[in-house]
Amino acid sequence: xxxxxxxxxxxxxxxxxxxxxxxxxxxxxxxxxxxxxxxxxxxxxxxxxxxxxxxxxxxxxxxxxxxxxxxxxxxxxxxxxxxxxxxxxxxxxxxxxxxxxxxxxxxxxxxxxxxxxxxxxxxxxxxxxxxxxxxxxxxxxxxxxxxxxxxxxxxxxxxxxxxxxxxxxxxxxxxxxxxxxxxxxxxxxxxxxxxxxxxxxxxxxxxxxxxxxxxxxxxxxxxxxxxxxxxxxxxxxxxxxxxxxxxxxxxxxxxxxxxxxxxxxxxxxxxxxxxxxxxxxxxxxxxxxxxxxxxxxxxxxxxxxxxxxxxxxxxxxxxxxxxxxxxxxxxxxxxxxxxxxxxxxxxxxxxxxxxxxxxxxxxxxxxxxxxxxxxxxxxxxxxxxxxxxxxxxxxxxxxxxxxxxxxxxxxxxxxxxxxxxxxxxxxxxxxxxxxxxxxx
Length: 440
Hints:
Layout: H1 2-22, H2 25-51, H3 54-57, H4 63-74, H5 76-94, H6 102-121, H7 127-145, H8 149-156, E1 161-163, E2 166-168, H9 170-199, H10 206-231, H11 240-251, H12 255-270, E3 278-281, E4 284-291, E5 295-299, E6 305-309, H13 310-315, E7 318-320, E8 328-336, H14 342-354, E9 366-372, E10 377-385, H15 393-410, E11 420-422, E12 427-429, E13 432-434, E14 437-439
Helix pairs in contact: 1-8, 2-5, 5-6, 6-7, 7-9, 9-10, 10-12, 14-15
């Protein structure tokens, strides 16, 4: 706690010094110069932004130079503010004005630090990480410029509590949190880059590409966590206290998550399902859009996206329409009247199937007489397609319409059942017996 009292004493001394300085004309003149430089920077930056078309000016530049130009224009007011203060400092020195004008130097240092940090951290696309890096770096730089960095760190490290042999202090929590966020962001950025490189390789199957990408991301995140723990001085053996709780959580609360994760790795390894396959799971029919660690995304023909847990693909029956090849056979049953020639019907059915664009010529469509029904000759028309991802019901409907057209043209009837209903016993109506016959 002595470090805390020391920091408080330093802040108190600094406030007293500032209070004394406020009574002098020198401090007021420095504040006035700083305010004037701020006004100059704001006005000049506003005028320049109105006159400069950044998009047209940087058209054709590399992406790195475009980003740098955008960051410079965004921080133009602070840059002009620093330049104005430097000019004022030079003017004070040239006029040989006596006294310390340290406030101008502090303002220049703080503003310069912010510009440099903003330009460097601005290359980070993630806005949350950018703000975190910028604010953290500038806070450290400001404390260092003011001479308060070492006392502040000592004060934050002066008190804490011990859990399982690990001493936790505010300084340790801050350092660990900041470093963990930065390293995780760097690990995700690196894994995204490597994942794009893996997916661009034509020698790897889609399932292997996804598996390698997931393993790379997992390894990089694990290494990032281990590096942060080692950097902040945390002994990994001290975390053994938490291993029992984590094991219990995995055994009870997280068993479904672990099951889905393991199922996802199995699916990627055995290549039973891969992105682009057309599958049926339960009543869900569609194509595999993406495979994640916990679920697989299935996109249906109506645009809906089902997120199905990976465990369902292992425990349930799955129909993969494109597992070994893309060719799929479809059956269309139909019936004609007994007055029709079955040989002619088969030939016309094959002809109508070939007229549909999506039906393959090889293997050729075939038509078989299946049974002699109660009121019709029952046939099955079989044909093949190579694009089940474009739909199955729609191509079957096109084949049925082609059958309808050719049967209408050739005069072949599609029968419908006609039934006679006869009442054998006479019915009494008003004391009179009548026998009625009804036909449906």
